[in-house]
Amino acid sequence: MSVAGELDFLKRVDKALHDPQMRSAVPFTQDRLRMGREQATHELGNMEEWREAASEIRLHTIENLDSYLEQLATNVRKNGGHVHFAFKAEDAVSYVSEIVRKKGARSVIKSKSMVSEEIHLNKNLEEMGVKVVESDLGEYIIQLAGETPSHLIAPAIHKTKEQVAELFSKEAGRKIPVDTNQLLQFAREKLRKEFLEADIGISGCNFAVAESGSVVLISNEGNARLTTTLPKVHIAIMGMERLVPTWKDLDVVISMLTRSATGQKITSYVTGINGARLHEDMDGPEEFHLIILDNGRSDILGTAYEEVLKCIRCGACVNVCPVYRNIGGHAYGSVYSGPIGAVLAPLLEGYEELKELPFASSLCGACTDVCPVKIPLHDLLIEHRKDVVEQGFITKFEQLTFKGFTFMASHPFVYEKAIKMAHTGLSIFAKDGYIANGPGPLKGWTESRDFPKPAKQSFRDWWKKETRDS
């Protein structure tokens, strides 16, 4: 699932901070989505009651996941569909690959699916010689750029209009103006042909409904319906937690999802899919396959992190995060970015490559405040930090530093002497009241901003003087 590549976290952050296009594009869209959510939730009224209701539905589902998954699978099969439980990413990829081989498929069209990104499905299919085309506009843009999504609902949030025009011009072999209508027209014409020629359509799943065996897709583009109806075979891939018990429950969750994601009362398309077409149907796929992916999710059940599985992938937490605002999504090194990514990604993949993510947060709590299903994100980030330390994923230098500070802080005499020594030592590096090139641990700070010169009088000395004088 990791997309970290060869760069470590700090280098990815540094790269992001020196990308002026990204640092312009991300805040612009982030602000627009955030303001849309604020307006939509205000109009809804009783927001806390809605959040509580959605949270209870999601938590109840997670706590009874085994029975609802069994009900879902039974009803999908009753509807004529095929169900495959994939324990690992490799199992899901293998199942899709086998269908592709059996059908002799040469081309695949996809609608938006974060789970397919998680299992690196495109790469595996392309290695088989299969042509894979993303039909979601944002996904299509980053596919042309050879990149991964940088946001849960706006995969190309980091791209400017000028960059998109450059990508489309290269694909078209001609100059396409930096004009929204002309850019959309090119994408529409290009993708229409791909829909008609695709042998297999692959989609994600916003939610599955256990009581009917339905897969529900929510989008603002018509691509999802074309992907799931024009090809002869439709494969839907879902994380095992992405279901609700009933359509009544879905009504509550969708009401929260669309408002929290894009600030809409409802998206342009809400599509319920009940399997392959019947004899009397005029269109639709001849075969329907549902892949239910675990890939580490079952390990989260019953742990302190269980509530992260309530996530409905709205991206509201990402849109208020000050860290994401400055470094974008790719710096996280995971398909899942922002606060939700900082909690979820290490759970699915481990701390080896992603141990820094829980620390990529100011712990301001804005993410928790806007989460429509009340996931305590900042609390879970603190829990992660504890686990990172307890499991030994910190450097020897950090271990020695904190042991030294613990000793110093618990011995007032040593603490006081250390503060005075630090003041004397740091004053050597100060100029005009600031340290521009700090030594040791301060180096990371002063590489990007100056550090204030220590005060002439420490708080402890000031306090002693005040109490003595009074």
From TrEMBL:
The keyword Repeat applies. One of its GO terms (biological process) is lactate metabolic process. InterPro entries: 4Fe4S_Fe-S-bd (IPR017896), 4Fe4S_Fe_S_CS (IPR017900), FTHF_cligase-like_sf (IPR024185), Helical_ferredxn (IPR009051), LUD_dom (IPR003741), LutB/LldF (IPR004452), LutB_C (IPR024569), NagB/RpiA_transferase-like (IPR037171). Residues 446-470 have a biased composition (Basic and acidic residues). Keywords: 4Fe-4S, Electron transport, Iron, Iron-sulfur, Metal-binding, Repeat, Transport. PROSITE patterns: 4FE4S_FER_1, 4FE4S_FER_2. One of its GO terms (molecular function) is 4 iron, 4 sulfur cluster binding. Residues 302-332 form the 4Fe-4S ferredoxin-type domain. Residues 445-470 are annotated as: Disordered. The keyword Cell cycle does not apply. This is Iron-sulfur cluster-binding protein. It comes from Bacillus thuringiensis. The lineage of its organism: Bacteria, Bacillati, Bacillota, Bacilli, Bacillales.
